[in-house]
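User: Sequence in, structure out. Go.
Assistant: Echoing your sequence, followed by the structure tokens.
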Amino acid sequence: MPKPPPENRSAAFLLAMGKGRKKGRDRGRWASYDLQGGCAYDKGMAAWQIFTSAEHRFLEGALRWRIDKWDRQRCVSFYLTLILRHAESGDDREPVYLQPDGTSDVATILNFRGGRLLGISESDLRGITSSASSGRLARRERAA
């Protein structure tokens, strides 16, 4: 039986190939695919089901294991951390230039390849920054 293309891999196919939930220390590339419970990246689908193999490979290089384990919002938040804290876009051909105070304009962030693939929008940025600041305020109030 020929192997289906990577975009058509189903949970049943991966389980039949023995690439689902493996036990042990060295579980390899398929360790993050929890096929029984699913790893919902967006709208109940895993990242490898949404992106092409080339896009997934790029995001896997930038976000490592997080692209397969985290939901979209956490991946977007971590990608922003890579850009603004570490000045890394995930692509050597796209260097990150930050202002002296460590900021960047929104258009620049949205135009990086990872930002385009993740579908980051201005509303995503507003939501992430507002949830982060409200979380900090809540922790300060509890400590006081």
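User: And one key feature?
Assistant: The chain has a mean pLDDT of 75.
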